[in-house]
Amino acid sequence: MDILPFRQIHLDFHTSEAIPTVGKDWDKAHFQAMLRLGHVNSMTVFSKCHHGWSYHPTAVPLSRMHPTLTIDLLGAQIEAAHEIGVKTPVYISAGLDEKLVATHTHWLRRNPDGNTTWVGWLQAGYHEFCMNTPYLDYLIAQTEEVVRNYDGDGIFLDIVGVRDCACQYCIAELRARGLDPRDAQARAALGRETYFNYTRRINAAIHALKPGLRIFHNSGHMTRGDREMAECNTHLELESLPTGGWGYDHFPLSARYVQQLGKEVLGMTGKFHTTWGEFGGYKHPNALRYEAALSLANGAKISIGDQMHPFGQLDPATYALIGQAFAEVEQQEPWCHDVVNTADVGVLSIEAVTGLSHVFGPATPTGLVDAGVVRVLQEGHILFDVLDTESDFSRYQVMILPDAIPVVGALRDKLLAYLKGGGKIFATGASALDTEHAVFTLDFGVRYQGECTGNPSYLVPRFSLAPWENAAFVIYSAMKDIAATKGEILADRQDSFFNRDYLHFSSHQHTPNTQQVAGPAMVRTANTVYLAFPAFQLYADKGQNALREIILTGIRALLPAPTLTTNLPAQGVQTVMRQSGENRTIVHLLYASPVKRGQVEVVEDLLPLQNVTIALHVAQAPTRVYLAPQNTALDFTVESGILHTTVPSMVCHQMVVVE
Question: Which of 70, 277, 407, 417 could make an SS bond with 432 (beta carbons 3.0 to 4.6 A apart)?
């Protein structure tokens, strides 16, 4: 299989039949000029859109070419792109086909109450089809036609995933098996079976015609811990539009998980100010520069979402915008292919362990936990991977069990072996807590005594917490009531006088602390640190600077010799990638500061940083250290296995190469 291109466009074209003269302005020379302007080397072009229309002649029963289109637009795009060396994966809307709704409502996916999904009948929008109906045969026939008739470089199937469906086909299937369709677990099991039957059949159909053709099934989020779903794809595309609901936390979290799965990865953002379906919206060029750099720094290639006007011409303003980012990527590619991340810390994802997915951003308490870990570690400049229970824990100096990780059975055995082998664990909140038996399933040097009722609680560090003076710091939750059985108490708990209630309240918000020690809040042993409240969820929710530093103090107590230290500001991002084929290590340094404008988080100003220092553990003294792609040599020293160098100045993204 060929190498996944770095600079890709994902081109939407969801076009109503009510729009006249679709494709009337198509022009091959203009199309090619836009691809060159954007420095594009791959574009996902469209066969079938959400409205159900094909953009090429079709002989598949029930399939129809767009009624106001008069040319083979798919064929024209593939020919034009290939002529200038641009690859063309082909997009097929798999889950949606709105033109079919009126005649085949019995193929639609249904909620348990019988209603359609996505929107109701009298609302503008799409309706999703169930893959446990004859719709799947129709979709496979459409896909086979495209693969057979066109020289595409892959197939991208959209709006798919494991679904809970109560259509009549699914109900009949469950009843035939002697199962109760009212049982949510039975429906969930059938939904998973249905999804894998779909991927198995459609992958086989594609590869029977063109063995090895790239295939990706898009559900908008790569579920951590579900490796079986990842294996359905030849590569992975991480849909993660920061302004479109995913936020800037989502992509690093996903990327740091999927890179260990052994597949090439695309990070997908968009050119839009908001999200898909937007015309006339333009992200600031600096935002795309930063988002492209963030993909490279996390070992991924880049895909930028766009939408072509119905008349068939690409927008020059869009490709000038994209070209600013992709021109930089084009220069950086030699240092970004075939890389492996270096990490000191492994984060056991709560989504991976519990199966609770938050999909778009930190919208739920579960989502807040994983997002909070990423924020703390990135802002603390700690190198990390995000793990599931199948990951190799032995690669990491420290494992983090954030807030609510159940530790039983095989996972407990694996973590005990990790500790026995010299590993260290940082845990918070209810992680490894068996509340039924009132014990921790791992030895953190504490005894569980119950749940504190006071909310908020207060934490008093026994360590210096610069830049603040010693104080009782408010914690916006209750704590676990614990007693230390061994080790060192790092911080104490103080309680509120009482909880806020109409019978007794004090001041505007919450009750002050009693100033009396009520028990430990943070305890360290030789190989563990335990913090007695859901610290990561709270940080994601409240953004409390002091809380972040409390967490980082605990992690750093277990990580005395990190691979990399740097003086980047808190909003800086750093990764260390090993490019073994070239016998070099690449340190990525990024800096931008997203700000919230209305309901959208945007990047606009890219401020220069001066004299950025790095200290990197190296196995041997390097022969050369330089900036890429500038090829500017840097002075460096190596002392006790640590390389010290300084980047005089940088804007947005800088690679430091150690050869």
Answer: 407
